[in-house]
Design brief:
The complex is a heterodimer of chains A (about 350) and B (about 300).
Chain A: E1 4-13, E2 16-26, E3 31-35, H1 42-50, E4 57-62, E5 65-66, E6 77-80, H2 92-103, H3 107-120, H4 136-148, E7 154-158, H5 166-183, E8 186-191, H6 194-200, E9 203-208, E10 211-216, H7 218-223, H8 228-233, E11 240-244, E12 247-251, E13 256-258, E14 268-280, E15 284-291, E16 295-305, E17 317-323, E18 328-330, E19 337-338
Parallel strand pairs in A: 3-8, 3-9, 6-7, 7-8
Antiparallel strand pairs in A: 1-2, 1-4, 4-5, 9-10, 11-12, 12-18, 13-17, 14-15, 14-17, 15-16, 18-19
Chain B: H1 3-20, H2 22-52, H3 69-76, H4 78-110, H5 116-128, H6 131-141, H7 148-155, H8 171-199, H9 203-211, H10 216-245, H11 248-253, H12 265-275, H13 279-287, H14 290-309
Helix pairs in contact in B: 2-13, 3-13, 4-8, 4-10, 5-8, 8-10, 10-14, 12-13
The chains are: A alpha+beta (about 350), B mainly alpha (about 300).
């Protein structure tokens, strides 16, 4: 276990800056997720921490020690790659044993360690197979077993679930979280999938354009986005952003509710919602429309849970409500959050 | 309905028939290559087989069939046995050197460094330069009087005043010389093949090995070389076939001498049949290693197919 810190870390490739002055501190035993769209610099940041990429400037500290100049093998890290990067010509057992042998572990202890790691992931019966004889899920387990076998201080995981099918991915996510809890190893996890990020992370660092836009616990990042990028990136569908009196007003699709389903507290803001289209998704409904009183020309999406029974049809306008505290305000030029304020009263005729 | 309107679709159908039929297009495209191989390789090859069982010489008009007589007499000929041994030494030593050096070069060329394009070009040069020209260059380098190797080694103090080896005139040195030139000449192809193999290994595998703690030698011998081995074998087989069948280096540098010490089967066959006029004897010598080469060719094709699938 160890802390991982980056200080003003930068990486420039010819012509563009991949990582632009990132300051990050990962606590001991923490599961931190780097979340962002492809090309935002998250993998480059991870590879710099691994030592596979050299930073242009800034420092990387693992366990409080500057490791800028150290090669990957001396950083006490283990990495799981998106492709799993299993050695195709070696059996599963030899794949798992590889880091131990490379470390110079005593021969007689290696078999035991391999056995233990294989047991942890339920792959004992696969030990004599070659990677090409394994399914995607099995390969992922082998890659994880290879990562844990030498008791690293830090796990670096680069989208390890993205090659699994949707069903397996949910299962694997749960297992991954459980195993990290059990081992308590500091983990840095890169993904572009917000569901994975929300589900796995103790904290999430949302990245865009080489910068960390926001760092915080999943719920906080979701509820209180620091800027319009974070607001738009997290959530599916993303946060609605409409311009009202020169300021961007944001609220989540599930926070605007029909009057019948909304709480009748005074702190709610009434809004009329003109429904243009209704999508039935089984577990709920998506309503597409506009807010005629506030932003008649901007599209708004409302997500209604299965439990909301109000009858809603396309082509009609309904009375909806949103909790005042759910309204977030952003500066339209910088995209940054600005203090909350009251929405100007509108005549709801 | 008018006549031109009917005629147009017919024309289109015919055009489609020629270019769209995979089997006909395939035959059409292959025809020049097949014709070339039949005329330049297959016909002389069959003639050679025919000659090797007969008494044909440059001067005979009525050859006789003699069965395996030519092969039997070749086996009793000390010059042939010597050439057979020389061929084995020449092929095995040169290809061992080629594969080791080509692997080192390919690994070096995979790294990023300044002036890589220049190094790459220089390495390719022996392959693209006409071999007769290259060999003549080497002839000067090995010249008994003006040898630049001797001159250099004497000036750096490695050779004393009485040391002046005659590279192409002393049996062991002559063999070493032709092996050296052959290595120089065939290494570029092996390097390019190895480079192809190396670049087919995904970067993730190298990164994983590095993170897993492998040092340079473990990385090389446990990960890189085993992964590139099938492709290296292709290079080895190519090299072996080429070394056994080629005679140009020997022909230009030593003509098989001194005392047949650099005579290989290909050159012996040439001297015997073309210079000596004994077409049937030469054909028997040339065909002697056919079974070995056939095995090499089959292995080569199999490996090529396998590495294509992977």
């Amino acid at each position: 276990m160890a802390t991982v810190e980056t200080k003003a870390l930068r990486k420039e490739f010819t012509g563009h800056t991949a990582v632009d002055g990132v300051d990050l501190a990962i606590r001991e035993g923490e599961f931190l997720v780097l979340l962002g769209p492809s090309g935002c610099g998250k993998t480059t940041l991870l590879r710099m921490i691994a030592g596979l990429e050299t930073q242009t400037s800034g420092d990387i500290l693992i366990g409080g020690k500057v490791v800028n100049e150290l090669p990957p093998r001396t950083r006490k890290i283990a990495m799981v790659f998106q492709s799993y990067a299993l050695y195709p010509h070696l059996s599963v057992a030899k794949n798992i044993a590889f880091p131990l042998k490379a470390q110079g572990a005593p021969r007689e202890s290696i078999a035991g360690e391999v056995e233990r790691a294989a047991k942890m992931f339920g792959i004992e019966r696969l030990l004599q197979r070659k990677p090409r004889q394994l399914s995607g899920g099995e390969r992922q387990r082998v890659a994880l077993a290879r990562a844990v076998v030498r008791h690293p201080d830090v796990f670096l995981l680069d989208e390890p679930l993205s090659n699994l099918d949707a069903k397996l991915r949910t299962l694997a996510r749960d297992e991954l979280k459980q195993f990290q809890r059990r081992l308590g190893t500091t983990t840095l996890y890169v993904t572009h999938d917000q569901v994975e990020a929300m589900g796995l992370g103790d904290r999430i660092a949302v990245m865009s354009g080489g910068k960390v836009r926001q760092l915080g616990p999943p719920q906080e990042v979701y509820d209180d986005p620091a800027d319009t990028f974070v607001a738009g990136f997290l959530g599916s569908p993303p946060m609605n952003l409409v311009t009202v009196d020169g300021v961007l007003v944001g609220f989540r699709p599930e926070q605007l509710l029909p009057v019948s389903a909304a709480s009748a507290e005074a702190a709610t803001v009434p809004m009329r919602f003109a429904v243009e289209r209704v999508e039935h998704l089984g577990a709920g409904r998506l309503l597409y429309g506009t807010l005629p009183d506030y932003a008649p020309n901007e599209k708004v999406i409302v997500s209604l849970a299965y439990t909301v029974h109000s009858s809603i049809e396309a082509g009609h306008t309904y009375e909806f409500r949103v909790h005042q505290s759910n309204l977030k305000f952003f500066d339209p030029t910088t995209g940054l959050r600005v203090p909350s304020r009251a929405l100007p009263a509108r005549k709801s005729a | 309905m008018t006549a031109p309107a009917l005629a147009r679709p017919r024309f289109r159908e015919r055009a489609a028939g020629v270019t769209d039929s995979a089997s006909w297009l395939g035959r059409l495209m292959l025809a020049p290559a097949v014709l070339y191989i039949v005329l330049v390789v297959a016909v002389p090859f069959l003639m050679a087989i025919g000659y090797s069982f007969s008494t044909v010489t440059i001067g005979t008009s009525t050859p006789r069939f003699v069965g395996l007589e030519n092969f039997r007499s070749a086996l009793e000929d000390t010059a042939f046995l010597k050439a057979l041994g020389n061929t084995a030494i020449f092929a095995v030593v040169s290809q061992t050197l080629v594969i080791v050096l080509a692997s080192i070069l390919a690994i070096a060329l995979q790294r990023k460094f300044r002036g890589k394009w220049l190094v790459r070009m220089l390495i390719l040069l022996p392959w693209v330069a006409p071999i007769s020209l290259g060999s003549i260059g080497w002839l000067w380098i090995f010249d008994p009087v003006y040898s630049v190797i001797n001159w250099t080694l004497r000036h750096v103090g490695l050779f004393g005043p009485d040391t002046w080896p005659i590279w192409l005139g002393q049996p062991k040195l002559a063999m070493a010389s032709i092996i050296g030139v052959h290595v120089w000449r065939t290494m570029p192809l092996a390097t390019i093949i190895s480079l192809g193999g190396l670049s087919s290994i995904p970067q993730d595998i190298h990164d994983a090995a590095e993170v897993d703690g492998a040092g340079f030698f473990r990385h090389l011998f446990v990960i890189t070389l085993p992964l590139v081995l099938p492709i290296l074998l292709v290079a080895v087989l190519f090299g072996l076939v080429f070394s056994i069948t080629d005679m140009i280096v020997v022909y230009v540098l030593t003509r098989g001498g001194p005392f047949d010490s650099t005579q290989v089967l290909a050159s012996l066959a040439f001297f015997k049949s073309i210079d000596g006029g004994d077409l049937s004897g030469g054909a028997a010598v040339a065909l002697f290693l056919l079974p070995v080469l056939a095995v090499c060719a089959v292995l080569l094709l199999r490996l090529a197919r396998r590495s294509e699938v992977v």
